[in-house]
Specification:
By secondary structure, the chain is an alpha/beta fold. It folds into two domains: 174 residues, Rossmann fold (3-Layer(aba) Sandwich); 210 residues, Rossmann fold. It is 32% helix and 24% strand. The chain contains 13 helices and 19 strands. It has an eight-stranded mixed β-sheet, with helices on both faces. A hairpin with a 5-residue loop joins β9 and β10. α3 packs across α5. The two termini are 25 Å apart.
Length: 409
Protein backbone atom coordinates (compact mmCIF):
# COMPACT_ATOMS: atom_id res chain seq x y z
CA UNK A 1 0.00 0.00 0.00
CA UNK A 2 1.43 3.40 -1.03
CA UNK A 3 1.84 6.50 1.03
CA UNK A 4 -1.31 8.52 1.77
CA UNK A 5 -1.61 11.29 -0.80
CA UNK A 6 -2.12 14.73 0.74
CA UNK A 7 -2.68 18.00 -1.08
CA UNK A 8 -1.58 21.01 0.94
CA UNK A 9 -3.27 24.12 -0.40
CA UNK A 10 -1.74 27.43 0.66
CA UNK A 11 -3.68 30.66 0.21
CA UNK A 12 -2.21 34.16 0.17
CA UNK A 13 -2.01 35.17 3.82
CA UNK A 14 0.86 36.16 6.09
CA UNK A 15 0.43 32.84 7.93
CA UNK A 16 1.60 30.97 4.81
CA UNK A 17 5.04 30.55 6.38
CA UNK A 18 3.51 28.42 9.15
CA UNK A 19 2.35 25.90 6.55
CA UNK A 20 6.02 24.91 6.16
CA UNK A 21 5.87 23.33 9.63
CA UNK A 22 2.63 21.52 8.76
CA UNK A 23 4.27 20.25 5.56
CA UNK A 24 7.25 18.97 7.54
CA UNK A 25 5.02 17.07 9.96
CA UNK A 26 3.04 15.50 7.13
CA UNK A 27 6.10 14.37 5.18
CA UNK A 28 7.98 13.09 8.24
CA UNK A 29 4.98 10.99 9.27
CA UNK A 30 4.97 9.15 5.96
CA UNK A 31 2.60 11.15 3.75
CA UNK A 32 3.29 12.13 0.15
CA UNK A 33 2.44 15.83 -0.06
CA UNK A 34 1.75 17.91 -3.15
CA UNK A 35 1.75 21.64 -2.34
CA UNK A 36 -0.65 23.75 -4.39
CA UNK A 37 -0.20 27.43 -3.48
CA UNK A 38 -2.13 30.32 -4.93
CA UNK A 39 -0.24 33.00 -6.84
CA UNK A 40 -0.68 35.29 -3.85
CA UNK A 41 0.82 32.69 -1.50
CA UNK A 42 4.06 32.79 -3.47
CA UNK A 43 4.54 36.40 -2.35
CA UNK A 44 5.02 35.02 1.17
CA UNK A 45 6.81 31.70 0.56
CA UNK A 46 8.52 30.91 -2.73
CA UNK A 47 7.99 27.94 -5.02
CA UNK A 48 11.48 26.60 -4.36
CA UNK A 49 10.77 26.27 -0.63
CA UNK A 50 7.59 24.26 -1.20
CA UNK A 51 9.27 22.01 -3.75
CA UNK A 52 12.33 21.36 -1.58
CA UNK A 53 10.31 20.58 1.55
CA UNK A 54 7.78 18.34 -0.18
CA UNK A 55 10.02 16.65 -2.74
CA UNK A 56 7.28 17.19 -5.33
CA UNK A 57 6.77 19.73 -8.11
CA UNK A 58 4.79 22.86 -7.32
CA UNK A 59 2.23 24.46 -9.62
CA UNK A 60 -0.25 27.29 -9.26
CA UNK A 61 -1.76 27.50 -12.75
CA UNK A 62 -4.05 25.11 -14.61
CA UNK A 63 -1.85 25.69 -17.70
CA UNK A 64 1.23 24.05 -16.17
CA UNK A 65 1.82 20.49 -17.46
CA UNK A 66 -1.48 20.55 -19.34
CA UNK A 67 -0.93 17.04 -20.74
CA UNK A 68 -1.27 15.67 -17.19
CA UNK A 69 -4.60 17.52 -16.65
CA UNK A 70 -3.49 18.68 -13.17
CA UNK A 71 -6.68 20.61 -12.41
CA UNK A 72 -8.49 17.26 -12.38
CA UNK A 73 -5.88 14.67 -11.50
CA UNK A 74 -4.50 16.24 -8.32
CA UNK A 75 -7.86 16.27 -6.55
CA UNK A 76 -8.91 12.87 -7.91
CA UNK A 77 -5.86 11.10 -6.51
CA UNK A 78 -5.81 12.78 -3.09
CA UNK A 79 -6.65 11.04 0.18
CA UNK A 80 -6.88 14.40 1.94
CA UNK A 81 -6.88 18.06 0.93
CA UNK A 82 -5.94 20.57 3.63
CA UNK A 83 -5.83 24.32 3.02
CA UNK A 84 -3.69 26.23 5.51
CA UNK A 85 -4.00 29.11 5.68
CA UNK A 86 -7.46 29.46 4.16
CA UNK A 87 -8.17 33.14 3.57
CA UNK A 88 -11.61 34.75 3.42
CA UNK A 89 -11.25 34.94 -0.36
CA UNK A 90 -10.38 31.24 -0.65
CA UNK A 91 -13.31 30.21 1.59
CA UNK A 92 -15.68 32.31 -0.53
CA UNK A 93 -14.45 30.72 -3.75
CA UNK A 94 -14.70 27.21 -2.31
CA UNK A 95 -18.21 27.80 -0.98
CA UNK A 96 -19.45 29.14 -4.32
CA UNK A 97 -17.65 26.64 -6.53
CA UNK A 98 -15.40 29.16 -8.27
CA UNK A 99 -12.34 27.72 -9.97
CA UNK A 100 -9.93 30.33 -11.30
CA UNK A 101 -6.65 28.66 -10.31
CA UNK A 102 -5.21 25.21 -9.66
CA UNK A 103 -6.11 25.11 -5.97
CA UNK A 104 -9.80 25.96 -6.42
CA UNK A 105 -10.01 23.48 -9.33
CA UNK A 106 -8.49 20.85 -7.05
CA UNK A 107 -11.12 21.55 -4.39
CA UNK A 108 -13.89 21.00 -6.96
CA UNK A 109 -12.53 17.66 -8.11
CA UNK A 110 -11.58 16.24 -4.71
CA UNK A 111 -13.75 13.37 -3.46
CA UNK A 112 -11.74 12.92 -0.29
CA UNK A 113 -11.98 14.67 3.09
CA UNK A 114 -11.22 18.41 2.95
CA UNK A 115 -9.92 20.43 5.89
CA UNK A 116 -9.79 24.24 5.91
CA UNK A 117 -7.65 26.07 8.50
CA UNK A 118 -8.77 29.71 8.27
CA UNK A 119 -6.50 32.65 9.05
CA UNK A 120 -7.53 36.29 8.68
CA UNK A 121 -8.28 39.41 10.67
CA UNK A 122 -11.07 39.18 13.23
CA UNK A 123 -13.40 41.49 11.33
CA UNK A 124 -13.08 39.35 8.20
CA UNK A 125 -13.72 36.12 10.12
CA UNK A 126 -16.78 37.57 11.88
CA UNK A 127 -18.29 39.11 8.73
CA UNK A 128 -21.67 37.52 7.89
CA UNK A 129 -20.47 36.61 4.40
CA UNK A 130 -17.53 34.61 5.77
CA UNK A 131 -19.70 32.93 8.38
CA UNK A 132 -22.23 31.91 5.74
CA UNK A 133 -19.46 30.53 3.55
CA UNK A 134 -18.07 28.53 6.48
CA UNK A 135 -21.55 27.19 7.28
CA UNK A 136 -21.99 26.14 3.65
CA UNK A 137 -18.67 24.29 3.57
CA UNK A 138 -19.41 22.53 6.84
CA UNK A 139 -22.89 21.56 5.64
CA UNK A 140 -21.28 19.91 2.63
CA UNK A 141 -19.05 17.84 4.88
CA UNK A 142 -15.79 19.81 4.92
CA UNK A 143 -14.00 20.34 8.21
CA UNK A 144 -13.52 24.06 8.80
CA UNK A 145 -11.56 24.39 12.01
CA UNK A 146 -12.04 27.47 14.16
CA UNK A 147 -9.15 29.95 14.02
CA UNK A 148 -7.18 30.63 17.17
CA UNK A 149 -7.22 33.78 19.28
CA UNK A 150 -3.98 35.74 19.49
CA UNK A 151 -1.64 38.18 17.82
CA UNK A 152 -2.48 38.91 14.19
CA UNK A 153 -0.53 41.09 11.76
CA UNK A 154 0.60 44.49 13.00
CA UNK A 155 -0.63 45.34 16.47
CA UNK A 156 -3.99 43.62 16.11
CA UNK A 157 -5.06 40.82 18.44
CA UNK A 158 -8.19 38.69 18.25
CA UNK A 159 -9.76 35.61 16.72
CA UNK A 160 -8.38 34.79 13.30
CA UNK A 161 -4.89 33.48 13.99
CA UNK A 162 -3.86 30.25 12.26
CA UNK A 163 -3.88 27.44 14.84
CA UNK A 164 -0.60 25.83 15.80
CA UNK A 165 0.64 23.67 12.87
CA UNK A 166 1.13 20.72 15.23
CA UNK A 167 -2.54 20.89 16.15
CA UNK A 168 -3.63 21.25 12.51
CA UNK A 169 -1.60 18.13 11.80
CA UNK A 170 -3.47 16.27 14.56
CA UNK A 171 -6.80 17.21 12.93
CA UNK A 172 -5.52 15.97 9.56
CA UNK A 173 -4.31 12.72 11.08
CA UNK A 174 -7.65 12.07 12.72
CA UNK A 175 -9.61 12.94 9.58
CA UNK A 176 -7.44 10.61 7.50
CA UNK A 177 -7.85 7.78 9.99
CA UNK A 178 -11.64 7.98 9.92
CA UNK A 179 -12.28 8.49 6.21
CA UNK A 180 -14.70 10.72 4.28
CA UNK A 181 -17.93 9.22 5.60
CA UNK A 182 -17.14 9.53 9.30
CA UNK A 183 -17.84 13.21 9.99
CA UNK A 184 -20.94 12.26 11.93
CA UNK A 185 -20.83 15.25 14.29
CA UNK A 186 -21.05 17.83 11.49
CA UNK A 187 -23.57 20.51 12.38
CA UNK A 188 -23.35 19.67 16.09
CA UNK A 189 -22.11 21.89 18.91
CA UNK A 190 -20.37 20.04 21.73
CA UNK A 191 -19.03 21.41 25.00
CA UNK A 192 -16.17 19.66 26.78
CA UNK A 193 -14.55 20.42 30.11
CA UNK A 194 -10.97 19.34 30.76
CA UNK A 195 -8.24 19.57 33.36
CA UNK A 196 -8.50 20.02 37.10
CA UNK A 197 -9.89 22.93 39.07
CA UNK A 198 -7.82 24.65 41.76
CA UNK A 199 -9.33 26.20 44.87
CA UNK A 200 -7.06 28.90 46.37
CA UNK A 201 -6.11 28.86 50.05
CA UNK A 202 -4.00 31.99 49.84
CA UNK A 203 -2.12 33.83 47.06
CA UNK A 204 0.39 30.95 46.65
CA UNK A 205 -1.42 27.74 47.68
CA UNK A 206 -4.45 25.87 46.43
CA UNK A 207 -6.37 22.61 46.72
CA UNK A 208 -6.10 20.71 43.44
CA UNK A 209 -5.92 17.31 41.82
CA UNK A 210 -3.78 15.32 39.40
CA UNK A 211 -5.86 15.74 36.24
CA UNK A 212 -3.73 16.75 33.24
CA UNK A 213 -6.60 17.51 30.85
CA UNK A 214 -5.28 15.07 28.22
CA UNK A 215 -8.51 13.06 28.02
CA UNK A 216 -10.61 16.19 27.57
CA UNK A 217 -8.25 17.47 24.88
CA UNK A 218 -8.46 14.10 23.10
CA UNK A 219 -12.25 14.45 23.17
CA UNK A 220 -11.93 17.93 21.65
CA UNK A 221 -9.55 16.84 18.88
CA UNK A 222 -11.65 13.86 17.87
CA UNK A 223 -14.84 15.92 17.88
CA UNK A 224 -13.25 18.52 15.59
CA UNK A 225 -12.12 15.77 13.21
CA UNK A 226 -15.67 14.40 13.18
CA UNK A 227 -17.00 17.80 12.11
CA UNK A 228 -18.33 19.28 15.36
CA UNK A 229 -18.15 22.86 16.55
CA UNK A 230 -16.25 22.46 19.79
CA UNK A 231 -16.16 24.61 22.91
CA UNK A 232 -13.46 23.46 25.33
CA UNK A 233 -13.51 24.75 28.90
CA UNK A 234 -9.97 24.13 30.15
CA UNK A 235 -8.92 24.27 33.79
CA UNK A 236 -5.19 24.52 34.53
CA UNK A 237 -3.92 22.19 31.81
CA UNK A 238 -0.82 23.83 30.34
CA UNK A 239 -1.57 22.07 27.03
CA UNK A 240 -1.58 23.61 23.55
CA UNK A 241 -5.05 24.60 22.34
CA UNK A 242 -6.53 21.92 20.07
CA UNK A 243 -6.93 23.31 16.55
CA UNK A 244 -10.54 24.04 15.75
CA UNK A 245 -11.81 24.36 19.32
CA UNK A 246 -12.96 27.54 21.01
CA UNK A 247 -10.98 27.37 24.25
CA UNK A 248 -12.15 29.07 27.43
CA UNK A 249 -9.63 29.01 30.29
CA UNK A 250 -10.79 28.83 33.89
CA UNK A 251 -9.26 28.17 37.27
CA UNK A 252 -11.80 27.30 39.94
CA UNK A 253 -14.93 25.15 40.09
CA UNK A 254 -17.14 28.25 40.22
CA UNK A 255 -15.48 29.66 37.11
CA UNK A 256 -15.82 26.34 35.33
CA UNK A 257 -19.50 26.13 36.24
CA UNK A 258 -20.21 29.60 34.88
CA UNK A 259 -18.38 28.93 31.60
CA UNK A 260 -19.89 25.48 31.01
CA UNK A 261 -23.47 26.52 31.75
CA UNK A 262 -23.19 29.49 29.40
CA UNK A 263 -21.65 27.43 26.60
CA UNK A 264 -24.12 24.58 27.10
CA UNK A 265 -27.14 26.77 26.35
CA UNK A 266 -27.15 25.73 22.66
CA UNK A 267 -25.03 22.56 22.82
CA UNK A 268 -26.10 19.18 21.47
CA UNK A 269 -23.85 17.40 23.96
CA UNK A 270 -21.86 18.30 27.07
CA UNK A 271 -18.99 16.09 28.22
CA UNK A 272 -17.69 16.82 31.70
CA UNK A 273 -14.20 15.32 31.55
CA UNK A 274 -12.69 17.84 34.00
CA UNK A 275 -11.84 16.79 37.53
CA UNK A 276 -13.85 19.32 39.53
CA UNK A 277 -12.94 19.85 43.17
CA UNK A 278 -15.77 18.71 45.45
CA UNK A 279 -14.73 21.17 48.15
CA UNK A 280 -13.06 24.57 48.51
CA UNK A 281 -11.63 26.41 51.51
CA UNK A 282 -14.31 28.23 53.48
CA UNK A 283 -11.99 31.21 53.87
CA UNK A 284 -9.39 32.70 51.55
CA UNK A 285 -6.35 34.27 53.20
CA UNK A 286 -5.42 37.55 51.53
CA UNK A 287 -1.78 37.05 52.56
CA UNK A 288 0.40 33.96 52.57
CA UNK A 289 -0.41 31.73 55.54
CA UNK A 290 2.71 31.72 57.72
CA UNK A 291 4.17 28.80 59.62
CA UNK A 292 4.55 29.68 63.31
CA UNK A 293 7.21 27.95 65.39
CA UNK A 294 5.79 25.67 68.04
CA UNK A 295 2.21 25.96 66.78
CA UNK A 296 0.13 23.42 64.91
CA UNK A 297 -1.67 24.70 61.81
CA UNK A 298 -5.28 25.70 62.23
CA UNK A 299 -7.81 23.13 60.95
CA UNK A 300 -8.79 23.71 57.34
CA UNK A 301 -12.50 24.37 57.05
CA UNK A 302 -14.05 23.29 53.71
CA UNK A 303 -17.35 23.97 52.01
CA UNK A 304 -18.98 22.15 49.10
CA UNK A 305 -18.55 23.27 45.53
CA UNK A 306 -21.57 23.25 43.20
CA UNK A 307 -22.40 19.90 41.59
CA UNK A 308 -22.04 20.97 37.96
CA UNK A 309 -22.80 17.56 36.42
CA UNK A 310 -26.03 17.16 38.37
CA UNK A 311 -27.05 20.71 37.51
CA UNK A 312 -26.42 20.15 33.80
CA UNK A 313 -28.43 16.93 33.89
CA UNK A 314 -31.37 18.50 35.72
CA UNK A 315 -31.53 21.65 33.59
CA UNK A 316 -30.73 20.77 29.97
CA UNK A 317 -29.77 23.69 27.75
CA UNK A 318 -32.01 22.42 24.94
CA UNK A 319 -34.33 19.47 24.23
CA UNK A 320 -32.46 16.28 23.45
CA UNK A 321 -29.17 17.52 24.89
CA UNK A 322 -26.86 14.65 25.92
CA UNK A 323 -24.87 14.95 29.15
CA UNK A 324 -21.81 12.78 29.78
CA UNK A 325 -19.96 12.60 33.07
CA UNK A 326 -16.68 11.08 34.23
CA UNK A 327 -16.03 9.13 37.41
CA UNK A 328 -12.50 8.54 38.67
CA UNK A 329 -12.65 5.65 41.16
CA UNK A 330 -10.05 3.79 43.22
CA UNK A 331 -12.16 0.81 44.38
CA UNK A 332 -15.51 -0.88 43.67
CA UNK A 333 -15.30 0.93 40.34
CA UNK A 334 -18.52 -0.25 38.69
CA UNK A 335 -20.59 -0.26 41.89
CA UNK A 336 -19.58 3.31 42.67
CA UNK A 337 -20.02 4.26 39.01
CA UNK A 338 -23.59 2.97 38.84
CA UNK A 339 -24.44 4.81 42.04
CA UNK A 340 -22.96 8.05 40.68
CA UNK A 341 -24.80 7.66 37.37
CA UNK A 342 -28.13 7.38 39.20
CA UNK A 343 -27.26 10.25 41.52
CA UNK A 344 -26.13 12.66 38.81
CA UNK A 345 -28.87 11.92 36.28
CA UNK A 346 -26.59 12.07 33.22
CA UNK A 347 -27.02 9.97 30.09
CA UNK A 348 -23.57 8.38 30.07
CA UNK A 349 -20.89 8.03 32.73
CA UNK A 350 -17.30 7.17 31.83
CA UNK A 351 -15.87 5.22 34.75
CA UNK A 352 -12.14 4.68 35.05
CA UNK A 353 -9.86 3.43 37.77
CA UNK A 354 -7.20 5.91 38.85
CA UNK A 355 -4.06 5.78 40.96
CA UNK A 356 -0.65 4.07 40.59
CA UNK A 357 0.01 5.70 37.22
CA UNK A 358 -3.46 5.02 35.85
CA UNK A 359 -5.42 7.62 33.84
CA UNK A 360 -4.08 10.90 35.29
CA UNK A 361 -1.25 12.39 33.24
CA UNK A 362 -0.83 9.37 30.96
CA UNK A 363 -1.29 9.05 27.19
CA UNK A 364 -3.44 5.93 27.58
CA UNK A 365 -6.66 5.11 29.37
CA UNK A 366 -9.25 2.37 29.78
CA UNK A 367 -12.80 2.72 31.01
CA UNK A 368 -16.31 1.37 31.14
CA UNK A 369 -19.00 3.66 29.76
CA UNK A 370 -22.23 3.19 31.69
CA UNK A 371 -25.54 4.28 30.18
CA UNK A 372 -28.69 5.46 31.90
CA UNK A 373 -30.45 2.85 29.73
CA UNK A 374 -28.56 0.09 31.56
CA UNK A 375 -25.88 -0.37 28.89
CA UNK A 376 -22.29 -1.14 29.79
CA UNK A 377 -19.55 -0.56 27.20
CA UNK A 378 -15.99 -1.55 28.14
CA UNK A 379 -13.20 0.29 26.31
CA UNK A 380 -9.87 -1.58 26.51
CA UNK A 381 -6.55 0.01 27.42
CA UNK A 382 -5.22 2.17 24.62
CA UNK A 383 -4.65 5.76 23.47
CA UNK A 384 -6.97 8.34 24.98
CA UNK A 385 -8.09 9.24 21.47
CA UNK A 386 -9.54 5.72 21.11
CA UNK A 387 -11.61 6.19 24.26
CA UNK A 388 -12.67 9.63 23.01
CA UNK A 389 -13.85 8.20 19.70
CA UNK A 390 -15.83 5.47 21.47
CA UNK A 391 -17.50 8.08 23.67
CA UNK A 392 -18.52 10.09 20.59
CA UNK A 393 -19.82 6.90 18.98
CA UNK A 394 -22.11 6.36 21.97
CA UNK A 395 -23.15 10.02 22.05
CA UNK A 396 -23.91 10.01 18.33
CA UNK A 397 -26.14 6.97 18.68
CA UNK A 398 -28.24 8.79 21.26
CA UNK A 399 -28.48 12.25 19.71
CA UNK A 400 -31.76 13.18 18.01
CA UNK A 401 -31.70 13.85 14.29
CA UNK A 402 -29.91 17.09 13.43
CA UNK A 403 -31.92 19.98 12.01
CA UNK A 404 -29.05 20.67 9.58
CA UNK A 405 -28.22 17.47 7.67
CA UNK A 406 -24.82 17.22 6.05
CA UNK A 407 -24.77 17.09 2.27
CA UNK A 408 -23.03 14.03 0.90
CA UNK A 409 -19.73 14.59 -0.86
Amino acid sequence: MGKPQVVLGVAGGIAAYKACELLRRLTESGHSVRVVPTESALHFVGEATWSALSGNPVSTRVWDDVHEVPHVRIGQHADLVVVAPATADLLAKAAHGLADDLLTNTLLTARCPVVFAPAMHTEMWEHPATQENVATLRRRGSVVIEPAVGRLTGVDTGKGRLPDPAEIYEVCRRVLSRGPAERDLAGRHVVISAGGTREPLDPVRYLGNRSSGKQGYALARTAVARGARVTLVAANTGLSDPAGADVLTVGTAEQLREAVLKAAADADAVVMAAAVADFRPAHYAAGKIKKKDGEEPAPLELVRNPDILAELSAHRGRPGQLVVGFAAETDDVLVNGRAKLARKGCDLLVVNEVGDGKAFGTEENEAVVLGADGSETPVPYGPKEDLADRIWDLVGERLPESDAPVEAK
